[in-house]
Design brief:
The structure holds 2 protein chains of 2 kinds. By secondary structure, chain A is mostly helical. Chain A has helices at residues 8-23, 34-51, 65-68, 80-86; strands at 28-30, 94-96. Chain A has one domain (8-98): Ferredoxin Thioredoxin Reductase. By secondary structure, chain B is mostly beta strands. Chain B has a single domain (5-130), classed as Rieske [2Fe-2S] iron-sulphur domain (Rieske Iron-sulfur Protein), CATH 2.102.10.10. Chain B has one helix at residues 94-107, and strands at 5-10, 19-24, 27-34, 37-42, 56-58, 61-63, 70-72, 78-80, 117-118, 120-123, 126-130. Classes of the chains: A mainly alpha, B mainly beta. The interface between A and B is medium-sized, with 19 and 21 residues.
């Protein structure tokens, strides 16, 4: 548990700043769904307050550092092939830069992705 | 006009994106150059007093070199607490393990506070700071 009183909006803004620098060179961007983006960033701030690290809000922690570090947001580099196939990251905070309607992108696990 | 402001350093002493520590009237201060805009904050981290000028400045966000707590240099606000460190897979000798455990327990009780900021102004190529 973190002993740091964090202002939710300030932290969301700073995470947005840092994440953008990572995901844009990877060909991704923040989801255009602002409500979803704000909700997911908020969950990450809560997780960061709890664990000290902003983990992906949609993937389970396994208490194994090697596994858990692969779901630190933005986790795109660790799941590149999968996320490139589904054109979004697992939680949907990031989508491929050419995506306009994120609602059309299903959250498919790797084994259900049909590769052409 | 400049009441309370003290001449600190020349603007040419800090490149854009850089930081410099100064001591003014006994106060340790870090001056940050954020794209030509200058901010002054207390030098000591709001977590465990590490010197923030040895950290990383990215835009308006400063990351402490010791435990990676982050601060907004425009208002000194603490944005995150310390990041847990990786002690690795190797099991330390018992005496060192006990020491690290003790330190870890103590650190868990340390609150991360926001840091103080100071008004700045530029005059004749000098950065002035009001304490």
């Amino acid at each position: 548990m973190s002993l740091c009183q964090v202002n939710m909006e300030s932290r969301k803004k700073s995470l947005h700043y840092f994440y953008e620098k990572v995901v844009v060179p990877l060909g991704f961007k923040f989801t255009p769904d602002n409500e979803m983006m704000n909700f997911l960033l908020e969950q990450e701030v809560i997780l960061e307050g709890r664990h000290g690290i902003p983990f992906c809000p949609c993937q389970p922690l396994r208490n194994d550092r090697t596994c858990d570090m692969q779901i630190v947001c933005p986790c795109i580099p660790f799941h590149r092939k999968h996320f490139d196939d589904i054109k979004r990251c697992w939680c949907g905070l990031f989508v491929h830069k050419d995506v306009l309607d994120p609602d059309k992108l299903p959250q498919l696990p790797p084994k259900e992705v049909k590769n052409e | 006009m400049n009441k309370g402001f003290i001449r600190a350093i020349s603007t040419s002493e800090i490149a854009s994106g850089g930081m410099k520590a100064v001591e003014l009237d006994g106060s340790e201060i870090v001056i940050c150059n954020c794209g030509g805009k200058y901010y002054a904050i207390q030098r000591r981290c709001g977590h465990m007093n590490a010197p923030l000028d040895l950290g990383t400045l990215d835009g308006i966000y400063l990351t402490c070199p010791m435990h990676c707590a982050q601060f907004d240099i425009t208002n000194g606000e603490a944005l995150s607490g310390p990041v847990p460190t990786d002690t690795g897979q190797e099991i330390p000798p018992p005496s060192l393990g006990r020491y690290l455990q003790n330190i870890g327990m103590l650190i868990n009780h340390v609150r991360t506070e926001s840091v103080r900021t100071y008004p700045t102004k530029i005059e004749d190529g000098w950065i002035l700071i009001r304490l």
